[in-house]
């Protein structure tokens, strides 16, 4: 009996079952389909945010980076942990209150429009375009992870693996919307946690001691001291800058909009940060023990991003292997489903509903949202068909795009009443354009791009922030009604938090 296939079949059945359950609970209105009626518990919020954040790059991209780059990857991990903590502290409580007060805004573009009291649709359209561009890329990274899993673990054709991953995720996202995504993310977060604790511990047991393991490791990668000595300040800043991306990731911060109360954000933060710290350490340890194991036993590993899959297959009973491989699917699917839903939300709420001249029923909007989920997934699958794609590279580009385009504006919108509508639009465009130019424009002497010098999120975030600040100061001050609303929302934040 093939226990691995049995485990994966049961996992797929569980995900679809959750989708059917959620379909009965929260798809009668657009608010229920997109935000679960703002009744999501702190436990589900925390693990859902974490699972949708970490994706396949946590079990494949990050161990692969540790395998290749060694201890340099630690700086990325440090930046991510501090960025996630700051996101819970600065953004989560304010966004939860502001989006509800601002005419029950369901998406980030809708929140921006309400925040600046503009209903002309311009900022919604600009924001939605940025979301669709970068989420299509981001979703394709998850599908690459699914394709590599099926190819490496089961010998299934890579392209077939991509399509199977897409179809399962689309199925439960279409059925249950945000509630299905959040509940499946919770289950997937638990699976990822167990897997990232189990795998490095079992792999470490193949060595006599930590000194023995590190000895095999140092034959392939530099020690911490050597690695630190070779790093420049610019390289460290580039790695730490990953943390800036958290402020602008729509699929993560939408969880803050859906939590049942502001008071529960503290509970969600404690759960979420504990989960994240343990899983990141587990991912790094998987890559580190992978270097030592491959070196000790002279194993040929064609793709470093598959080290977790390799361990799952060679170190465990097939029943456990199935569970661990399901953890990779969990990581991949949790992020893809979140990204598909946010993309669908923007297409439905910020473009179709805003520019439609018809009176639209709630059920029609939900159905349009479902169509948008399928369309975005199909385009992403087409992009993901190249098996040589690097998960971490695609994720880093999309992460930078969102972090630079939306991160500064979200912070300014929640913390500074003087920010203006023109400053907001200029900030989104300047951040997104800077990132795209940094990634794709070959301006250096050898034909390479500026992203080879410094991670694109850093210049994008800085330029967007300066643009928002400068244009807002140059522009006419916001109207009294806008500043009064801003103060009223701050007052409500204090009341709800106490």
UniProtKB/TrEMBL annotation:
InterPro entries per UniProt: Na/Glc_symporter_sf, Na/Pro_symporter, Na/solute_symporter, Na/solute_symporter_CS, Sodium:Solute_Symporter
Pfam families for this protein: SSF
Highest taxon of the lineage: Bacteria
Swiss-Prot/TrEMBL keywords: Amino-acid transport, Cell inner membrane, Cell membrane, Ion transport, Membrane, Sodium, Sodium transport, Symport, Transmembrane, Transmembrane helix, Transport
Coarse class of the protein's main subcellular location: membrane
Membrane topology term: Multi-pass membrane protein
PANTHER family on file: SODIUM/PROLINE SYMPORTER-RELATED, SODIUM_PROLINE SYMPORTER
Protein name as it appears in the record: Sodium/proline symporter
Native source organism of the sequence: Thalassotalea profundi
Species classification: Bacteria, Pseudomonadati, Pseudomonadota, Gammaproteobacteria, Alteromonadales
């Amino acid at each position: 009996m093939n226990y691995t296939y049995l485990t994966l079949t049961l996992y797929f059945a569980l995900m679809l079952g959750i989708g059917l359950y959620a379909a009965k609970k929260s798809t009668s209105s657009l608010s229920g389909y997109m935000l679960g009626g703002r009744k999501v518990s702190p436990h589900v919020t925390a693990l859902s945010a974490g699972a949708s954040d970490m994706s396949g790059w946590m079990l494949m991209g990050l161990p692969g980076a540790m395998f290749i780059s060694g201890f340099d990857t630690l700086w990325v991990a440090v930046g991510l942990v501090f960025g996630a903590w700051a996101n819970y502290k600065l953004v989560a409580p304010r966004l939860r209150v502001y989006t509800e007060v601002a005419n029950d805004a369901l998406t980030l573009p809708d929140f921006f429009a309400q925040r600046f009291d503009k209903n002309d649709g311009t900022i919604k359209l600009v924001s939605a375009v940025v979301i669709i561009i970068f989420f299509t890329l981001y979703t394709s990274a998850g599908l690459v992870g699914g394709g590599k899993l099926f190819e490496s673990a089961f010998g299934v054709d890579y392209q077939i693996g991509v399509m199977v991953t897409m179809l399962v995720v689309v199925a439960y996202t279409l059925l249950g919307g945000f509630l299905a995504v959040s509940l499946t993310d919770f289950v997937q977060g638990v699976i990822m946690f167990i897997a990232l604790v189990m795998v490095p511990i079992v792999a470490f047991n193949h060595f006599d001691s930590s000194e023995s393991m590190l000895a095999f490791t140092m034959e392939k990668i530099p020690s911490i001291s050597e690695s630190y000595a070779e790093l420049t300040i610019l390289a460290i800043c580039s790695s730490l800058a990953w943390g800036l991306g958290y402020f602008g990731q729509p699929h993560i911060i939408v969880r803050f909009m859906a939590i049942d109360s502001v008071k529960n954000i503290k509970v969600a933060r404690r759960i979420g940060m504990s989960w994240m710290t343990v899983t990141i350490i587990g991912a790094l340890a998987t890559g580190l023990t992978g270097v030592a194991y491959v070196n000790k036993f002279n194993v040929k590993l064609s793709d470093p991003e598959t080290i977790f899959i390799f361990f799952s297959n060679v170190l465990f009973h097939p029943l456990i292997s199935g569970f661990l491989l399901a953890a990779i699917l969990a990581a991949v699917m949790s992020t893809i489903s979140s990204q598909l839903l946010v993309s669908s939300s923007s297409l439905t709420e910020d473009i179709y509903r805003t520019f439609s001249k018809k009176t639209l029923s709630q059920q029609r909007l939900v159905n349009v949202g479902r169509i948008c989920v399928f369309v975005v997934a199909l385009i992403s699958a087409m992009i993901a068909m190249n098996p040589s794609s690097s998960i971490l590279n695609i994720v880093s580009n999309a992460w930078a795009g969102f972090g630079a385009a939306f991160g500064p504006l979200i912070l300014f919108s929640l913390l500074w009443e003087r920010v203006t509508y023109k400053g907001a639009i200029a900030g989104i465009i300047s951040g997104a354009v800077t990132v795209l130019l940094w990634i794709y424009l070959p301006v250096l002497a050898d034909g390479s791009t500026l992203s080879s010098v410094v991670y694109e999120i850093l210049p994008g975030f800085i330029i967007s922030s300066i643009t928002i600040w400068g244009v807002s100061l140059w522009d006419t001050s916001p109207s009294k009604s806008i500043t009064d609303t801003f103060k009223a929302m701050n007052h409500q934040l204090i009341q709800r938090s106490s």
